[in-house]
UniProtKB/TrEMBL annotation, chain A:
Encoding gene per record: CYC1
Transmembrane portions of the chain: 237-256
Cofactor binding, note field: Binds 1 heme c group covalently per subunit.
Homology family: Belongs to the cytochrome c family.
Alphabetized Pfam families for the sequence: Cytochrom_C1
Keywords: Electron transport, Heme, Iron, Membrane, Metal-binding, Mitochondrion, Mitochondrion inner membrane, Respiratory chain, Transmembrane, Transmembrane helix, Transport
Protein's name according to its UniProt entry: Cytochrome c1, heme protein, mitochondrial
TrEMBL record, chain B:
Positions annotated to bind heme b b566: 94, 193
Binding locations of a ubiquinone: 198
Cytochrome b/b6 N-terminal region profile domain: residues covered: 1-206
Name of the protein: Cytochrome b
Alphabetically ordered keywords of this record: Electron transport, Heme, Iron, Membrane, Metal-binding, Mitochondrion, Mitochondrion inner membrane, Respiratory chain, Transmembrane, Transmembrane helix, Transport, Ubiquinone
Family (UniProt): Belongs to the cytochrome b family.
UniProt-listed Gene3D superfamilies: Cytochrome Bc1 Complex, Chain C
Protein's gene: cytb
GO molecular function: metal ion binding; oxidoreductase activity; quinol-cytochrome-c reductase activity
One biological process term in Gene Ontology: mitochondrial electron transport, ubiquinol to cytochrome c
Membrane topology, as annotated: Multi-pass membrane protein
Residues spanning the signal sequence: none
Species the sequence originates in: Armadillidium nasatum
GO cellular component, as recorded: mitochondrial inner membrane; respiratory chain complex III
Origin: domain of life: Eukaryota
From TrEMBL, chain C:
Gene: Uqcr10
Transmembrane portions of the chain: 12-30
One annotated Gene Ontology cellular component of this protein: respiratory chain complex III
Functional note: Component of the ubiquinol-cytochrome c oxidoreductase, a multisubunit transmembrane complex that is part of the mitochondrial electron transport chain which drives oxidative phosphorylation. The complex plays an important role in the uptake of multiple carbon sources present in different host niches.
Keywords: Electron transport, Membrane, Mitochondrion, Mitochondrion inner membrane, Respiratory chain, Transmembrane, Transmembrane helix, Transport
Pfam families: UCR_UQCRX_QCR9
Protein's recorded name: Complex III subunit 9
Predominant localisation class: mitochondrion
Membrane topology: Single-pass membrane protein
Assembly description: Component of the ubiquinol-cytochrome c oxidoreductase (cytochrome b-c1 complex, complex III, CIII), a multisubunit enzyme composed of 3 respiratory subunits cytochrome b, cytochrome c1 and Rieske protein, 2 core protein subunits, and additional low-molecular weight protein subunits.
Length: 265, 374, 63
């Protein structure tokens, strides 16, 4: 009798609890639909699996996209040419990439600054000397640094991809100031960046057809790598943890039961 | 030797020969887990401090550098950040156990415990400011500004705290110093917490004196605690390696910018219940007092205790309101992450009322039940 | 079998010094083997995506 009543109480509590959670969840969902900005869908990235590494061919192609398109306005100040070595480029290739830029160094023996070709230890060049210059060149909007961009935005690479490919005409009734463009994924809808990626904006050196979505996907993978240089290491560690953790737990659990054997009946 | 050496005998009394009730359940594991959490935080924090710079121009860059170019720096940093979450998961479960089984009857242990909770919350807040991202700066501004509601001295107090007229380098440097020292104060309090606990002995699920049912701490509870630790460390590593930023706010990967506030300022998940209580009081000073009260109120629990048996197990009505209270805390956590808008404001206010009414209903219901059953 | 276990026990696990030594040596080999195993799993799951799978395309330019 007592256990029956107890079960009933527990069951009622369970149903009430589940109902409460369901109610909260549905409130949460319905309210999302009424917000003014569009939330990006989850895309099936080849790196989003539990043990999946980044696609290094995509990092290499994404680097090409960044260098030829994004780098015109966006800096990548925390990424160095040395980071490319054995990730997307060989050491010789990375050196060649670095040598394409000119870096102000110095002072020399006479106290003057001088220009020299870039080295592996240099970070990627910034397109503007300072924030004011960047704002002035972009009618007041500051192009953000992209080094941590997929970590620094809600939705991460899904958001960046949706933003890059989501440009459309503004809906009726929305008038945009000159120099602003409409993008439903951008908070507020009016974004200072024009659509940058079209079919065949650049040509890939490995011959991959350069559709706009391909360009956007590759640059997103590149940016994920920029944000998390140790992405692949993390996945390796995760495999180790998931193999070793349960094994050690089982071992300790056995030993614990063994020690408690005289007390358990 | 372990019984005669003055230092070892203390450890012996606490960890080896200490008699412990045999019937304590896994809910009694969280104390030792908290010890491990504290040690993890101190050790990872020590290594992080070696690369930290307390200047607003350098702090963010140094952390990025640390995560990219220091060997396994990314791992240390994410372990420290997620370790804080693990700490609070364990603290809240530890407290939940105390509420359920009325362990707070041990006044001294409980009072020190609530103090440890307060200091841990302060430490985590100070630590969250150190990366100097957007949420660091704006979180620090919002929270320190709460003091300005204190009449007469508020404004002066805030400036004194900041070391200037805004949250800036002096603030960052002093927050770093305090974030470094507080864990050691917590460690000292933890030792006192354990000393007081061992004066009375642990509580147990039945809430009765259990001297006939005790065994030596080692090997029984050392093994049980070891098992708990292995599981917790495994879960922590899983979280860190699976999705290290799951519990964080993306906004904090943007460097702090005093000219541009983020659209939604919200604290980490473990403060959300208190944040919701703060925001549900329309009056600013009232909100701050409610925020303080939301944690301080736990100090009152031993004073309110009136049961004849020391455990909610035997008080069905108290059990009911305890589970309601815990659900309310969860719901407040949800409300704390919501904007201050139509459905959430009233919901938050109702939940706040329910939160505080628990502390009044608890002793009253217990008394009534004792009358009924005696 | 039993004789083998006994001789292992007598020669290795009975004395603390040899026991600790066995642990240290064992850990060394276990770590190497475990790393090889997990890295193998990782590289198998991500075949074709890693740098080692594509570097041959770019390395011949070096010479």
């Amino acid at each position: 009798m007592a256990t029956g009543a107890r079960k009933l109480v527990l069951r009622t509590l369970g149903i009430l609890g589940a109902g409460g959670v369901g109610l909260a969840f549905s409130l949460e969902q319905s309210l999302k639909a009424s917000e003014l900005e569009l939330h990006p869908p989850k895309f099936g990235w080849s790196h989003s699996g539990l043990f999946s590494s980044l696609d290094h061919s995509a990092i290499r192609r994404g680097y090409e996209v960044y260098k030829n398109v994004c780098a015109a306005c966006h800096s990548l100040k925390y990424v160095h040419y040395r980071d490319l070595v054995n990730v997307s480029h060989t050491e010789a290739e990375a050196k060649a990439e670095a040598a394409e830029i000119m870096v102000t160094d110095g002072p020399d023996e006479e106290g003057n600054m001088f220009q020299r070709p870039g080295r592996l230890s240099d970070s990627f060049p910034s397109p503007y000397p300072n924030e004011e210059a960047a704002r002035y060149a972009n009618s007041g909007a500051l192009p953000p640094d992209l080094s941590l961009i997929t970590l620094a935005r809600h939705g991460g690479e899904d958001y960046v991809f949706a933003l890059l490919t989501g440009y459309c005409d503004p809906p009726a009734g929305i008038n945009l100031r000159d120099g602003l463009y409409y993008n439903p994924y951008f908070p507020g809808g009016a974004i200072g960046m024009a659509q940058a990626l079209y079919n065949e904006t650049i040509e890939y050196s490995d011959g991959t057809p350069a559709y706009a979505s391909q360009l956007a996907k590759d640059v997103c993978v590149f940016l994920v790598w920029c944000s998390e240089l140790h992405y692949d290491d993390r996945k390796r560690f995760l495999i180790k943890t998931l193999l070793l953790g349960p094994a050690i737990t089982a071992l300790v659990f056995y030993y614990y039961r063994f020690k408690w054997n005289s007390i358990f009946h | 030797m372990r019984k005669n050496n003055p230092v070892l005998s203390i450890m012996n009394h606490a960890l080896i020969d200490m008699p412990a009730p045999l019937n304590i359940s896994s809910w009694w594991n969280f104390g030792s887990l908290l010890g491990i959490c504290l040690l993890t935080q101190i050790i990872t924090g020590l290594f992080l401090a070696m690369h930290f710079s307390g200047h607003v121009i350098l702090a963010f860059d140094n952390l990025v550098y640390m995560c990219r170019d220091v060997n396994n720096g990314w791992l240390l940093r994410t372990l420290h950040a997620n370790g804080a979450s693990m700490f609070f998961i364990c603290i809240y479960l530890h407290m939940g156990r105390s509420l359920y089984f009325n362990s707070f009857v041990m006044h001294n242990t409980w009072m020190i415990g609530v103090t440890i909770l307060l200091l841990s919350m302060a430490t985590a807040f100070l630590g969250y400011v150190l990366p100097w991202g957007q949420m660091s700066l704006w979180g620090a501004s919002v929270i320190t500004n709460l003091l300005s509601t204190i009449p007469y001295v508020g404004a002066a107090l805030v400036q004194w705290l900041w070391g200037g007229f805004a949250v800036d380098t002096p603030t960052l440097t002093r927050f770093f110093s305090l974030h470094f020292i507080l864990p050691f104060i917590i460690l000292a309090l933890v030792i006192i917490h354990i000393l007081f606990l061992h004066q009375t002995g642990s509580n147990n699920p039945l809430g009765i004196k259990s001297n006939s049912l005790k065994s030596a701490f080692h090997p029984y509870f050392t093994m049980k605690d070891l098992l708990g630790m292995v599981i917790m460390v495994f879960l922590l590593f899983f979280l860190v390696l699976w999705d290290p930023n799951k519990l964080g706010d993306p906004e904090n990967f943007n460097p702090a910018n005093p000219l541009n506030s983020p659209p939604h300022i919200q604290p980490e998940w473990y403060y959300l219940f208190a944040y919701a209580i703060l925001r549900s009081i329309p009056n600013k000073l009232g909100g701050v007092l409610a925020l303080a009260a939301s944690v301080m109120v736990f100090y009152t629990l031993p004073l309110l205790f009136s049961k004849q048996i020391q455990s909610s197990q035997f008080y069905p009505l108290n059990k009911c309101i305890l589970w309601t209270f815990l659900s309310v805390v969860l719901l407040l956590t949800w409300i704390g992450a919501k904007p201050v808008e139509a459905p959430y404001i009233v919901t938050g206010q109702v939940l706040t009322l329910m939160y505080f009414s628990y502390f009044m209903l608890e002793p009253w219901l217990a008394k009534k039940w004792d009358l009924l059953t005696s | 079998m039993a004789g083998f276990v006994t001789s292992i026990y007598n020669s290795v696990f009975r004395k603390t010094s040899t026991f600790v030594l066995a642990g240290a040596v064992g850990v060394f080999f276990f770590e190497r083997a475990f790393d090889m195993l997990t890295d193998g799993i990782f590289e198998h799951i991500n075949e074709g995506k890693l740098w080692k799978d594509i570097k041959h395309k770019y390395e011949e330019n070096d010479k």
